[in-house]
Amino acid sequence: MKNQKTKYLCLAAVLAAIIYVFTQFFHIPSHTGYTHIGDAFVYLAGALLPWPYAMGAGAVGAALADILGGYAMWAPGSILIKALTALCFTSKKEKVLCRHNLLALIPSLLLCAGGYYGYEALITRNIEEGTPGYNFAYYGFFTTLEQTVEELTKCFLLEFGENKELSYGRC
Q1: Distance CA 90, CA 81 (A)
Q2: Residues 6 or more apart whose Cβ sits within 8 Å of residue 132
Q3: How far apart are CA 88 and CA 10, in angstroms?
Q4: How far apart are CA 129 and CA 131, in angstroms?
Q5: Is residue 61 a contact partner of residue 79, using CB atoms and an 8 Å limit?
Q6: Which of 118, 124, 112, 114 is nearest to 86 (CA)?
Q7: What is the average pLDDT across 85-90?
Q8: Angle at Cα 114 formed by Cα 108 and Cα 116, nearest 5°?
Q9: Which residues, including other chains, have CB under 8 Å from residue 99's CB and lie 6 or more apart?
Q10: Rounded-to-integer distance, Cα 64 and Cα 49, Å
Q11: pLDDT in tens, 3-62
Q12: C-alpha distance from residue 140 to each of 18, 93, 106, 113, 169 (Å)
């Protein structure tokens, strides 16, 4: 049992480092911050590890990216949002890419987009409709929503890629 906990802790640390690297160094700047693929590794942590380790990996990796990347004011929100995002996924199935984990992209989408929208409104105190801060947060929500739908589509195509009818021949 002790050996299993050590294995999980080491895997969580490696995934936290991977989340940090793919969030910090492989991102595309946009008007609402930046787009990155670090969330894919938060999802992977949730699918590979028991929930406490997955939550830790997501929270630590995202917080490190925010703090070391110059976005420290976002770290508290990222810690909470990424830890909760990891909870959407399960490691109790035989396959990483199972129906539960594919469907988990939907609540993780709402949690991520809604969480950052709410956190931004909280820290900027611009929650009145029509203010520049409100518009910025509102469009940030829909940008995040769009990106997560794209990730969901990619995962679906990867899972059902052999079936040319479902993937339209793309996989």
Answers
A1: 17
A2: 126
A3: 22
A4: 6
A5: no
A6: 112
A7: 87
A8: 100
A9: none
A10: 20
A11: 888 999 999 999 999 999 999 998 777 766 677 888 889 999 998 899 889 999 999 999
A12: 25, 34, 18, 8, 32
* Type of residue numbered 56: G
Q: What single string gives the DSSP state of each residue in 128-161?
A: STTSHHHHHHHHHHHHHHHHHHHHHHHHHHHHTT
CA distances from 134 to 77, 83, 114 (A): 18, 26, 13
Token output for 170? 């793309």
Joined tokens for residue 8: 């999980």
Instruction: Give the three-state DSSP class for 35.
Output: strand
Q: What would the DSSP string read from start to end of 64-89?
A: HHHHHTT-GGGHHHHHHHHHHHHHTS
The pTM score is 0.71
Q: How far apart are CA 126 and CA 107, in angstroms?
A: 25
| Tokens read off for 157 | 């195509």
Give me the sign of the Cα torsion angle 13, 102, 167, 142: negative
